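Q: Is it fine to ask for two folds in a single conversation?
A: Yes, each is treated on its own. Send the first.
Q: Here.
A: Result:
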Amino acid sequence: MNTLKQLLDDSALTPYWMIVVWILLIWPLIMFRHRIQKMPKAGTGSGDGIGNGQTIGAREEQDDYFATVNMPFGLLAVLADGISGLSGGRVASTAAVHTFVKEFRELERFPDPPEFFGDAAMNANGEIMNQLHGVQGGTTLVAALIRSSMLYWGAVGDSLLFVYRGGILIPVNHKHTLENTLQEQYLSGEITESEALGNPQRKTLVNYLGSENFRSMELAEEPFQLYKGDKIMLCSDGVYNTLTEMEMETILSRPLSPYDAAQAMIDLIEEKRLVHQDNATVIIVERRW
């Protein structure tokens, strides 16, 4: 009877043994790679119904910054758009989002929303001022807290929060720009329509983080009731200034994951190839429970 050594030495059988040994060695690696490929990639969202998309547009650098944090007691989504005309825009947006995320991660339970937004905004404003060291900079910020079926939000600047429901995109917060002030003055009869529409400064921000004059965010007066299938969308002005409401609603109406819907919006923005395309960022959260 041949020994194992004799079998291995047999030139006719050696190739078969080599195949068996190769399979035993390589199979665990194949399975490991398969598991890694099945894991959700960073930023794509997974079973929690979260997705995002971003493009630098025609700008030289990306001044938008964003994050989502899913804790056992609730979810935070936050998006900041650094003011492109100021040299410290990128620093401001990054510092603002990092501050909100840090304070949310330190919580042990769902916070009182007005208190959380108020404290985080003031701390973010202080952190931005410290990091800028006198350099001009500032950022918009929109943040959403979600617990069960309730949406709470805070905003400053002109980044927007929407809820998509039943084919309709519902605007939730307001833009803090001179344009809104001019509109109020027109409606009250203080100025004419042409004066309101013709003001060259109408898109100027009147409230943002990174300013000594910052006082507070716009806060939800009461929580927004969510239903299964609702899609919560946070976006910078590079999104809503490029895409029409109908275009956004069409994408959100499709049976796409939040990540795929966000990417579809970014793809459409890039397809338009606008000469002065701003940074564009979108976060989409779908309520699946």
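Q: Second one now.
A: Result:
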Amino acid sequence: MADDEREILTYELFGTAVRDLAHQVVDSGYEPDLVLSIARGGLGLGMGLGYALDVKNLSAVNVEFYTGVDQRLDVPIMLPPTPQAVDLSGLQVLIADDVADSGKTLEIVQEFCADHVAEARTAVIYEKPWTVVSADYVWRRTDRWINFPWSSEPPLVDRRGGQAH
């Protein structure tokens, strides 16, 4: 796939995206008590938003579509450990992820939060037009394949079969 058919996110542009998303949150008047990152893609965004919004209460959830090699679930599942519901009670939560593609990952985290938190809003770097969840804060909308700076090169280690390089 040629580069003009892809969104290329550099680390420098990532910094711009984080700051722009933080400005959107501030401009909307929303004041999160907790930034909840969806691992792994949302971890960097969650950290950056935490600093920009002066929120020190950060947490993460792991959501997985895959149960094994070529075994994809119809809906994602949240993997333990998940934040304790009692710790979320009454909080304003900002859910952070790198991309809303199908939107099913964001959807399951929103549903998890809905029963416990005062309010949950979502922030993503990219949003695809076919997502089932429209994020509250979006840096860019695209229908193209996205090259993220942290995953544009193969891992140094293959955890399924030894060293990659």
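Q: Anything structural to flag on that second result?
A: Two points. The domain at 3-150 is CATH 3.40.50.2020 (Rossmann fold). The chain has one domain: 3-150.
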